[in-house]
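4.2 Preliminary Data

To establish feasibility before requesting continued support, the project team ran the inverse folding procedure on a target of 151 residues. The structure was first converted into the token representation described in Section 3, and no sequence information of any kind was made available to the design step. The complete token record follows.
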């Protein structure tokens, strides 16, 4: 019986989810910035609402990570990646085709007619570092694919 209890206890420990200390969420912009730096330059700033914002470059293309669901610029819940390009000649038909055929990176034309892509990520309750790093890689792929096929 004692051997069984020891085995059962060790099985529960191995099956336990990651501790919250191992998770990354939007309450720690510096941690997200450090992960983004694995893909290029990134610096922490503040947007016009007083919320954190990360400005980065991947392969020379500028992008921004906005923080949403914040309480006085802290305890944010989501992030949104955004990139924009000016003077490209991308049409609404191009944008619609992108949105119909692509899973990551919603596209639109802004008020100046410039193409944008964005990608919102819910980080409430946290995700693993590996998960967020993989998400940033998906963002990188979305930006590269947009540039290769739309610009």
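Position-by-position output of the design step:
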């Amino acid at each position: 019986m004692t051997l069984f209890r020891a085995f059962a206890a060790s099985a529960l420990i191995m099956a336990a989810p990651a501790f919250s200390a191992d998770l990354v969420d939007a309450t720690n912009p510096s941690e997200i910035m450090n992960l983004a730096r694995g893909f290029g330059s990134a610096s922490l700033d503040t947007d016009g609402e007083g919320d954190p914002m990360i400005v980065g470059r991947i392969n020379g293309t500028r992008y921004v990570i906005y923080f949403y669901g914040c309480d006085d610029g802290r305890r944010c819940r989501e992030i949104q990646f955004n990139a924009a390009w000016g003077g490209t000649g991308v049409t609404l038909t191009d944008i619609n085709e992108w949105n119909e055929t692509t899973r990551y990176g919603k596209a639109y034309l802004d008020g100046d007619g410039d193409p944008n892509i964005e990608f919102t990520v819910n980080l409430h309750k946290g995700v693993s570092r590996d998960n967020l790093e993989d998400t940033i890689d998906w963002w990188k792929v979305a930006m590269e694919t947009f540039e290769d096929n739309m610009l």
